[in-house]
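Friendly challenge for the regulars: who can give me the structure tokens for this chain first? No prize, just bragging rights.
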Amino acid sequence: MTKKSFYYVFLIAYIIIAFSGCQLVMDYHLDECDNNILDSSDTKNHAVSKHDITNTDGLYAQASYDSDDYIVCSNKQFRGDGYIDSNGLFQYARYYLQAADDKDISPMSETGEMTVAGWFKTEKSIGTILVKANTAFNSKEYRVFIEGEDLKFAIWDLYGSEHVITIETSVADGKWHHFAVTLELNNSWFSDSEIELFGYLDGEEVKEKEFEYKGYPSDTSGDFYMGAMYRESGLSEYFDGNLDEIGMTDYVASESDIEDAYDDQSDNESDDRDEDTCTPCTVDVVGPLAEYRMDECAWDGSANEVIDSSVNGFHATSLNALNTDTSGQIQRSGLFDGIDDYIEGSDIYTALKTTSSLSFWIKTTQSGDNTSWRAPGIAGIAKAGGGDDIFWGWIDASGHIGMTKGNTNTIKSTTPINDDAWHHIVLSWNSVSGE
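First reply, four minutes later:
Bragging rights claimed.
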């Protein structure tokens, strides 16, 4: 090849690189009801829900939808290292999402620019939101994570050195937050270069930083992870909370673009979806979310002995010698002593605090209490000092049955139900209208 033709090829290559940007290269809505996570960008680098081999609950990051507290449609819920289940046993969770390497999601090596953004909600002081990494020292690229309750961003250089920037402090407050980080690499043809970084939280610029940078890693073969950090020793620093709308561009998004994205998604909308087009995963279930018939011949406190007959299998456990009885309205029934008998299960927690209905048969002579949180009841969610409690089917001092949401919103039956006769009760609550 002559020197002239060499320069010609070089010029063509430079033009291709210079004009290959301005694309959305990653777009995970995290709306899926199953374990296949779709990338809606042109990259189509789909991901899969996984868990570590030490996982003990057999589950994966769950589809989550709370009509009072969501971004765009459903999101994915992660549970960190693990949790205490309804039987008091610790279950290792360690869920994560994984997508294969693709050159498009290493935009700093292609265009020298990138923007990464998304939503998170957590109360924990540590956890990885996303990372692209492999095991080699020079194959880690970028990471967004929580550390010490602060939101941080990390980028590695050609020599495996990690540059960590705190974007904002005290973000682990249990509320949804939108993050965005933009990066621009100057003098990208040389090993000694400089990066200009802007960090945003909830649509506002909160960080601007320039720092010296020794070139982007030469090995960009690492996979992309959401919900866990990938180190030489394996996965760690699992996220505990919710993630939604994770995206990336191969250019620096403007401040107005980031603000617009935050405003739209805060209003539960995106370019192709809004609250009218979303179908929460729980809606897809045929039949009730849970159905406890209480027809078992006996209970002895064994785990998952109170059978859920729905397709979800949200089995529960009887406590304190609670047992079944032959005098049910339909076959058998649970016979509660009014002192300390109860059934424990955590799987329907999310449904009970959002728009839902609860139906049941009840036969009792018990009189309760005119204060809902002290009264006997069918089900409920209470938090000390909280104003968002909900009590389903509590019995007052005169034997009326009621429902209370918060501290003041209460409805009761017009007649008592403690007359030792069977009564069928249906309670409903619309979390949008409050009715």
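The helical segments are 3-18, 107-110, 255-266, 349-352. The CA atoms of residues 101 and 223 lie 5 Å apart. Your move, everyone else.
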